[in-house]
Amino acid sequence: MDESVLVIPSKHNSIFAIPGNKHFIEYFLEIKALKCVATAKRYKKSIEGFFKVTNVTLISIDDIKQVTIMDCEQWIKEMIERGLAPNTVNSKVAALSSLYKWLLRYTDNYTSFELIRFNPFGSMQDIKPKIIQVRDTEFLSARETNRLLASIKTDTILGLRNKTIIYMFVTTALRKSELTKIKIKDIITFNGFDIAKILGKGNKPDVVKLQPKLVLLIKDYLDRTNRSVENNKDEYLFNGESSNKLNGAKLSTTALNKMLIRVSKNAHINKVLSIHSLRHTAITIAISSGCTIEKVRDFARHKNIATTNIYIHSINKIKDNAGDSVANLINI
Question: Under CATH, which architecture does the 19-123 domain have?
Fold first, then answer.
């Protein structure tokens, strides 16, 4: 029988077939993608890696049933020995565990039929590597941000690209995945304002306002890369680094982080920064400048204002600190 069919007897002895006759794991990944496409892609890669196949469609229900606790332990042991980060190992285990949890739901009330009986990845707590809590995301002050931007020379296309990217992050509070997906055709004028159309969390369409200086940088970058909205509208706005740097390749988030580390080092900024640090920087500077919580929430595109409050609380805890009052009364 076709492996894409989940054989679950009902009281009428029929079977529940997957819509569109899809393979059962493909269907599982489609369900996951409804919430987050990136998560579905990670799950697919992890599942293929564990079963050592090039495509999930090569995995059968019988393959699923044959996996033992020992198989799971050995896989985790191999990943740790290969030097994979604890977060990476745990993420891969979570992907397989999620697949098994989903398959466990397929049971029948009339016949007590169970597609699978247990999740071998669900009892790996004692072997999964412990995740060491890292310090909070570092961010830049307005002065450090100015120093960072001033240190980037724009006499090369790569330098101009890097400066434009960083300035865009700190004036729009974009997430890294949002920036890398922007295409030239997404830069438009709406009601007299320059904006960029983006795909936010969950691939939700949204827009961000582009400041005048940023628009000038983008135009300069397009001119220097011999591109235009008319002729190159479907290309990604920011090119990845390649042999000619002009091939329209999508910029990877890994390349973004490496770029930021390089330019911050050149600017003599001794902080452990990631691209998320730039979003954190944008939000923090906005709060420090006196913007209302509502404005900051909209700027950061937070779904819940409680998330914005976390940033505000962190700043206020330092800004309006009780220790200041104590120090004013104590002489040394």
Answer: Orthogonal Bundle (1.10)
54-58, long-range: CB < 8 A, 24+ apart:
56/23, 56/25, 56/26, 56/29, 57/23, 57/25, 57/26
For residue 259, CA distances in Å to 73, 101, 146, 165, 273 come to 37, 39, 17, 10, 11
Q: What share of the chain is helix, strand, coil (3-state, %, to 5)?
A: 55, 5, 35
- Length of the chain counted residue by residue: 332
**CA 58 – CA 198 distance, rounded (Å):** 35
35 alpha carbon, distance to own chain's centre: 13
Q: What is the pLDDT of residue 251?
A: 84
Q: What is the three-class DSSP state of 92?
A: helix
| Helix (H) / strand (E) containing 198 | strand 193-199
Superfamily of domain 142-323: Intergrase catalytic core (1.10.443.10)
pLDDT at 115 over 50: yes
Whole-number average pLDDT of the chain? 84
Domain ranges of the chain: 19-123, 142-323
User: pLDDT band for position 256 (50/70/90)?
Assistant: very high
pLDDT at position 214 over 60: yes
Contact (CB, 8 A) for 278 and 259: no
Name 132's Cβ contacts closer than 8 Å, sequence gap at least 6: 86
How confident is the model over 227-239, as pLDDT tens digits?
998 999 999 999 8
Distance CA(238)–CA(236), nearest Å, equals 6
